[in-house]
Every structure is written in C-alpha cells, then in structure tokens.
Amino acid sequence: MQQVNGSVPLFIELKSRFSKDLGLALKVAEELSSYSGPVATMSFDPHLVAAMQKWVPWVTNGIVAEYFVNDGKKPDMSWFRRLVLSNFLHWPRTKPDFVSFNIRDFPSRPIAFIQRFKKVPVICWTVKSSEQAKKAYKYCDQITFEGFDPE
Questions:
Q1: 74, 77, 24: which is closest to 47 by C-alpha?
Q2: Cα dihedral 73, 123, 58, 6 in deg (nearest 10)
Q3: Is the pTM here over 0.70, yes or no?
Q4: Each residue's pLDDT tens digit, 40-49
Q5: Cα dihedral sign for 68, 70, 73, 75?
Q6: Helix or strand or coil: residue 102?
C-alpha cells in the first residue's frame, strides 16, 4: 500500500475457505488502519465481511454473492450454506455497504430484495461482452468487466 500511497482507489477482495479463520481480515484491517487513500474490501465469506465492518468501519465493505440453486454445481457447499448465502441471512451481522453479484444472476429475487429493501449499491461481476454489459446496465449500479471496453 505504500507504493500506491492513495494515488488510486484500492479494491481488495478477501479470499477464504469459509473456515471462520479471521487472520487475513485482521492483517488487512491492520494495514488499512493507517491507510488514508480510497479503499473498499469485499469477500464471499460473511465472517470476513462482518470482521472488516467491526475492525475498519470507515472502509467501504461489501459482500460478493451468487444466487445458488440446487443444481449440483457447488458440491462442496452444504445446502445450509447455500441457503444462508443466497438469501442473505447473514445481513444483520455483515451489514454490507454494497453487494456484488455474478452477472448470470440478474434478474433474481435476492437482487430485487436487496435493491428494494436494503438500498445498497449492487455491482455485478464479471461482465465479458457488450451483450452482458447491456443486461448489467439495466439491473445494477456498477459493473466489473474483463476483456472488452464497456463504453
């Protein structure tokens, strides 16, 4: 972070194995405690998002999400975890400043619920074509794109 020194915004995604190990979040929070540049963090893991909200509440913290359906594509994930993540049952604990959904999930009930009742910005990932961008602009506030110019 010393190299950047606030000259560009940082967007930090915290990866996890959903093990409830908060070591990474603690290290990032320690680094951010003395950082004054524009920064946001995000994670799929509600435990990490809740920790960041607690430790660095002045930082914009978000949850990365997917609308999990029982399609067998996440065999390593229990039905209960899919239920909690897909329906944002973690919300009272995480209180994310934004939600970032997979582009394939637009439109869906969870996204409509977030937009109508929680009123936080909704971002989508990863938009890889102009066709996907048209869909994204219709349903969300911002896009994460790759491999093309979205203009």
A1: 24
A2: 110
A3: yes
A4: 999 999 999 9
A5: positive
A6: strand
Q: Which residue has the tokens 């971002």?
A: 123
How far apart, in whole angstroms, are the C-alpha atoms of residue 124 and residue 133? 10
For 21-141, list the strands marked E by DSSP. Answer: 39-43, 60-65, 98-102, 122-127
| CA dihedral of 113, 91, 15, 64, whole degrees rounded to 10 | 10
Give me 40's structure tokens.
């946001």
- How would you classify the pairing of strands 142-145 and 10-13? unpaired
Nearest-angstrom CA–CA distance, 98 and 100 = 7
Spatial distance between the Cα atoms of 52 and 41, rounded to a whole number of angstroms:
8
Which residue, chain included where needed, has tokens 């959904």? 101
